[in-house]
Amino acid sequence: MRLDHLSYAAGPDGLAATAQRIGGLLGADFVDGGVHPRFGTRNMILPMAADTYLEIVEVLDHPASDKAPFGQAVRARSALGGGWLGWVVAVDDIAVVEQRLGRQSVAGNRHRPDRTELLWRQIGVNGLIGDPQLPFFVQWQSPPELHPSAGADGRWSLACLEIAGDPRRVSEWLGETVEAPLEDVKVDWVAPHGTPGIIAAQVQTPQGLVRL
User: Using an 8 Å Cβ cutoff, are 203 and 157 in contact?
Assistant: First the structure.
């Protein structure tokens, strides 16, 4: 189990403008990630060190976005003005998570602009919707060289996550201590009695530390 990526919902100015604004703060360009046809969303990504990446995502005017939990989550966050949607951990065997949560994972896919299709399975988005401090889980089915972090410039890396919530609750959700998927990332747990979820992420860049 490891930290895979962070998801940020586009604001009212749309996906491209949100990516340009955040990319400007980081001194890096996001690239077009393509469409998630099963979820009714699309994204732009920034590959980073340690097999992680940042994703900015927006909902499409598509029936899938009303049915799929991920599309619903993105729509709801964007309706609030956009911002951090959640964090995602990658696992080697999602069947273990299915057994623990008592439900089945769903297939995910994304068509990149070069027509390459990425495949994975995911579970736990409803948990994120109900309690935004909780991550959801993915198991990649595409080969490692197609992972969205491939080709990252190692000068950009996630340095710290600020999460409003309770690490004990997150550990229960993960089925192991919360430090396990976050061993290379500092986590500041803040406002345990406030609205849960990601408050900010600190990214190390060639120009220094940037807090988003």
Answer: yes
pLDDT tens sequence across 136-164: 999 999 999 999 999 999 999 999 999 99
Only one residue has tokens 């736990």, namely: 124
Question: Comparing C-alpha atoms, which of 141, 146, 144, 143 is closest to residue 115?
Answer: 146
d(CA 55, CA 48) in angstroms, rounded, equals 11
Upper half-sphere CA count for residue 91 (Cβ side, 13 Å): 18
Minimal CA–CA distance to 101: which of 57, 68, 134?
134
Phi and psi, residue 79, nearest 5°: -65, -25
What tokens appear for 45 in the block? 């990504």
Assess contact for 42 and 150: CB atoms under 8 A: no
In terms of phi and psi (left: phi > 0; alpha: psi -120 to 50; beta: otherwise), the region of 102 is: left
CA atoms within 13 A on the CB side of 119: 3
Q: Which amino acid is at 175?
A: G
* Type of residue found at 144: P
* Assigned token pair, 35: 């469409």
| Mean of pLDDT values over 202-212 | 97
Looking at this protein, which amino acid is placed at residue 93?
D
Structure tokens at 43: 């994204």
Give the global pTM: 0.93
**What are φ and ψ of residue 93, in 5° steps?**
-140, 100
